[in-house]
Amino acid sequence: MRASAIGQDHDVRGGGQEGRWSHTYAALDLGTNNCRLLVAKPDKSGFSVVDAFSRIVRLGEGLGSSNVLSNQAMDRTIEALRVCQSKICRNKVTRIRAVATEACRRADNGVEFVSRVRAETDIKLEIIAPEEEAKLALVGCSTLYNVPRAPGSCALLFDIGGGSTQITWLELEAGDAATDDVETRILGWISIPCGVVTLSEKFGSGEDAQGKMSMLRYTEIRNHVRQHLEPFDAKYGISTCVTNDTVQMVGTSGTVTTLTGVFLKLPRYDRSLVDGRELEFSQLEGARDTLLALNRDNRAAHPCIGAQRADLVIAGCAILDAICDLWPVGRLRVADRGLREGIIHGLMRSADRESVTVKN
Asked: Do 119 and 188 have their domain in common?
């Protein structure tokens, strides 16, 4: 069974007259490094995951030097997307949105690749702008903010990706006191061309004689990222707010979840022990130092990293260090969620609106 034209908030089954409850939803996120799928059904608390898929495809490999997606990278990605398509059909998904981010945005052949994906997998990818990517991540992480203690409370949400990093600056207000809801309003956002893949390719491995990242190269990467962040900080006066202790921080990325797994000394990665956990910066720094002390082979052998991410995680740590150094909030909430969850929420709201329109 093949679903037709899967993507762009497409109603595979048709209809859509019974609100969110009549659908099974899927969100597909194709990034510079990963291909991720989430399949979910609505429940009273939002939704429950019924299937998921994640594979490192490195779609953006070599993009920084060539400005095009390579044939090998596209072939790897098509193979992963075929797996996604089979899961979409097997779970009888009726609403899906499939998005592509930085690699397809930057590549000269990004649009051609999207057409190839449609022809070979029936998945209709939508290349989204950085601003929408940030907004979807915000929705996906909406339940992770603490109820603000005072007026003027704000939050920093960051997402370290393969090709870029998004930073969103938010105003927080207490919502429904009975449910501890927190309302958010975007004050500003930025997407910087600093991701784990792009920086790893730009600066190289930086390995010393023992096969470890040299601190000179690590500092160079961190300073490079900070230079991209400082104008955003100056524009919104974020550092002043941090000094006043009115800022929360939420991080959604493989870098943050990996460091959390390292800190917890997990024998294997366990999302239920990571997502939503609050960590002190000192705890993250300890996990970072553990990774910096390992050479590539030992990082590859770590149960929370693996061979495919061993050469990328250090660049992620440098990005995180730049963020935490510039904005020393002192603690952050770890999010193993983001864009895909934001898509699911959007699809459910869309189904509800259509149901109301039909009834009226």
From this structure: no
- Judged by average pLDDT, the poorest of 26-35, 113-122, 143-152, 312-321 is 143-152
Question: Looking at the domain assignment, is residue 134 inside a domain?
Answer: no
SS3 content of the chain, % helix, strand, coil (to 5): 45, 25, 30
Distance CA 170, CA 241 (A): 12
Report which secondary-structure segment, H or E, holds 25.
Answer: strand 25-30
Name the residue with higher pLDDT: 310 or 3.
310
Q: What are phi and psi of 17, to 5 degrees?
A: -105, 5
Q: Which two tokens stand for residue 141?
A: 């992480």
Look at the chain and count its residues: 360
Res 163: pLDDT: 92
Which residue has tokens 């300890």? 286
More confident residue, 45 or 262: 262
Q: What is the CATH number of the domain that holds 322?
A: 3.30.420.150
In this structure, what token pair is assigned to residue 86?
A: 């089979």
> What is this structure's pTM?
0.86
Which residues contact residue 200 at a Cβ distance below 8 angstroms, ignoring those fewer than 6 apart? 311, 312, 314, 315
Short-list 181, 176, 190, 182, CA closest to 153:
182
- Total number of domains in the chain: 2
Strand partners for 135? none
Q: Where are the beta strands (DSSP E) in 103-153?
A: 123-127
Which residues neighbour 120 within 8 Å (Cβ) at sequence distance 6 or greater? 78, 82
Residues 6+ apart with CB under 8 A from 102: 31, 32, 60, 130, 161, 162, 163, 164, 195
- What distance in Å separates the CA atoms of residue 163 and residue 146, rounded to the nearest whole number? 30
- The sign of the dihedral angle between the CA atoms of 195, 252, 334, 170 is positive
Does 158 share its domain with 195?
A: yes
* Residue 45, in any domain of the structure: yes
1 within domain boundaries: no
- 3-state secondary structure (DSSP) of residue 270: coil
**Whether 221 and 110 share a structural domain:** no
Residues 350 and 205 in one domain: no
Say yes or no: 148 and 242 in one domain: yes
